[in-house]
Amino acid sequence: MEFYEVIKTRRSVRAYTDRAIPEGALERIGESVRLAPSACNIQPWSFRIVLNAELRQKIASCYSRDWLKQAPAIVLALGNSEECWKRLDGKPIIDMDIGIVMEHLVLAAAAEGLGTCWVCAYDVERMNKVMNIVSPWSILAISPLGYPAETPAPIKRKEISALFQVLP
Ligand SMILES: Cc1cc2nc3c(=O)[nH]c(=O)nc-3n(C[C@H](O)[C@H](O)[C@H](O)COP(=O)(O)O)c2cc1C
Prior knowledge:
By secondary structure, this protein is α+β, with helices and mostly antiparallel strands. Helix content is 31%, strand content 15%. The radius of gyration is 17 Å and the shape is globular. The chain binds flavin mononucleotide (FMN). Flavin mononucleotide is lined by residues 11-12, 117-121, 152, 155.
C-alpha cells in the first residue's frame, strides 16, 4: 500500500479472524521495527510475538476488555528504562522511543492488510509477572495482530488549523 494510503486507512481494530499471519508479512514488519529511530540510536527495546493460545489468554487476563482474547497474535513491546537515553533533567526517554517503534509496527502491519490496536490500559505489574519480565525492562505497550473482522466506524479528528500555528 502507498504510504499516505496506509496513514489514511489505518484504524484500531478490535475484532479479528483466525487467519494465520504469513511469514513474509511478519518478516517485513520486523524489518520496519528494526529501522525505527531511537534517541542516540540506543534501540532500548525488545519484542515478543505471542501465538501460543494459552499464553495469549494469560496476557489478555491483564486487560479488562474481552475482545483481546480472540486476537490470533499479541505483540508485546518491552522497553529498558536504564539503557535508554535520559533527558537533560535525567528523565528516561523510553516512552517516546517505544511510541515510535510501536507505531512503525502498527503502520507496517496496516501496509500488510493486518490490524492492530495499541493497548496500554492493562495491569503492567501483572503483565510483567505473566511474561517473567523484570526491571529495568517493562512491557510498555501491547497490540493484537491479525486480519480484521471489522471495519471501524469513522471517527473525528481535529481540524488541521487547530493543530498548527505558523509563526512567520
Ligand atoms: C498510547 C495509546 C494507548 C492506547 N490504549 C488503548 C487501550 O488500552 N485500549 C484500547 O481499546 N485502545 C487503546 N488505544 C487506541 C485508541 O483508542 C485509538 O487509537 C484512538 O481512539 C483513535 O482511533 P484509531 O486508532 O482507530 O484511529 C490506544 C492508543 C494509543 C496511541
